[in-house]
Amino acid sequence: MTTATTQGPAEEFRRLSDGDAELRAHGAYFSCTYLLDMERHAFLVRMHRGRVEDLVVDPEPLTAYDFAIRAGAETWREFCTPVPKPMYHGIWAASFQRDMRLEGDLLVLMQNLRCLTRQLELLRLTGPLG
Amino acid sequence: MGTASRISPVTGHYVTIDVEDVQYKVFYLENGQGQPLVCQHTAGCHNHQWRGLLEDEEITANHRVIAYDLARHGKSDPPLNKEWWKEEYKLTADHYVAFITAFCDALGLEDPIFMGSSFGGNVALQLALRHPDRFKAVIPVEGADYSPGFYLDWWQHPHANAAQVCASGVWDLMAPQSPDADRWATWFYYSQGSEAFKGDLYFYSVDHDLRGRLGEIDGERCPVVMLTGEYDYLTTPADGARTAEQIRGAEFIEMKEIGHFPMSENYPRFAGYLKQALRRIEERTAS
């Protein structure tokens, strides 16, 4: 269920993403749909040419996406801080050393890795989305 | 300020060497005089990673800093006299060690200190094992006895932009505290080396395996001072400490707020630890 506490950070994430200089400069081909599974809530991010087309909180069960990034709430809490501690400082680090899992069509993730990496760093400003 | 004052004292040279009957034209940068300090860049990269060290006047005052490009990297071409394009590039420990010793021989270096990072850190351990009399000491940076997990098809997948996958794929190896400009310079270098990256990682994650053999390294004869950054998720400080513990006489220093490319992502921070390592080597080798 979408709640006020999840809508605030999610909307902030969308605002920061759409206004980000790097994504505006390099996002012309950044089009894909991915899921951030933060344990308590999941967030579907649908990107189109570098802009957030949709950001759905707790999407319905059969909603399709290209890939998912899943981790426990504690990992996301550390990940989404201004200066993350070692091993929580990116999706590679947290996948190699913590409980983060990259699932689905990882080719799409790799094709969009530059912009995705930048976009996920914006979580350092918003904090966990929910 | 005149134009001349902005010319760097760092100079570039080429030297042609023979390694296992194959000829290579090797590019290297150097500056300083005194104790040779030979520097190996990380996998899929080139010698600009050592740009800060090469211009560090405190170190170059009494060290001849030499940073070469391994064949197929930077300005060092693939083999000159071999149809290399008909083979898959997979770097082996045997070849890597032979290449480095041939390069040091070609420059006539006496008792050089060898320092390398990542796959250069791992080969520093190989050099200490195989040629303890050829090197005064080694400084494995971000090295370990074994470092699996990075020999991945993604580095060369034809459906993805290999330059960006390699460059952004190593982004997390750097610490968030490192300056943006230096992290992006390192990212840029990585966008240039994708064709060699995977073959380098064959050595890093597959062929290099010193588990059970670290006891054969004589760290008294060839001092080993290991440096590892706390943000390195591939060869973690725990991996570095575990490796050093098994080498007779080896020392281990954990570096705070820095990652897997310390000399390139944040040289001023790395420099403090490097100077500590060089002091330890000087103390231990003074006779």
Automatic annotation (TrEMBL), chain A:
UniProt-listed SUPFAM superfamilies: SCP-like
InterPro entries noted in UniProt: SCP2_sterol-bd_dom_sf (IPR036527)
Descriptive protein name: SCP2 domain-containing protein
From TrEMBL, chain B:
Hydrolase keyword on record: yes
Protein's name according to its UniProt entry: Pimeloyl-ACP methyl ester carboxylesterase
Alphabetical UniProt keywords: Hydrolase
A Pfam family it matches: Abhydrolase_1
GO MF terms held by the record: hydrolase activity
Domain of life: Bacteria
Domain AB hydrolase-1: 36-143
PANTHER family assigned: AB HYDROLASE SUPERFAMILY PROTEIN YCLE, MONOACYLGLYCEROL LIPASE
Source species of the chain: Actinacidiphila glaucinigra
A GO CC term attached to the entry: membrane
